[in-house]
Amino acid sequence: MPLNAIEEPADKKCLDCGTALGPGRVDRKFCDAACKTNYNNTIKRESREEKEKAAAAKPEMSVPEYMIRIEEILRKNRKILEKFCDEDRVGRIRMRDLIGRGFNTKFFTSQTDPTVLEGNVYRFCFEYGYREEEGGVVVIICRPREVAIDN
Ligand SMILES: [Zn+2]
Fold this sequence. Notes:
This protein has helices at residues 33-57, 63-82, 95-100, and strands at residues 91-94, 110-111, 123-125, 128-132, 137-142. The chain is of the alpha+beta class. The longest helix is centred in the N-terminal third of the chain and has 25 residues, at 33-57. The model has no long low-confidence stretch (mean pLDDT 87). The site of zinc ion (ZN) has 7 residues, from loops.
């Protein structure tokens, strides 16, 4: 008798519908492919529902916490940009390397008017600005601090 055809214990049941499986392969768990698919879909749905429940149960961040979090992101962004550029040197790095260092492109402090800097829009994190060129290269510049902000 081949190893995989050992008799099942008589009480072994389909994990999905509970029907007795009868004799068959020792590792058999389902009646058929339909029960297997249904079972796996149920597991997936339950784990998704649990995740959604956990996310909903998490208390929302307070406004001060939220502001601190954004400040942290901006400071980290600035620190990363600072490594590649100073007032005498334009920096260049691949976007994927910037992201790899933990750079977050979602948050920035200001962006240049497209009519200045040769039409290129730079996004700034404080005094360091960057823009992505074609091919995924990021150009990083440093500009004088905007100490006199009127608007
Ligand atoms: Zn079944």
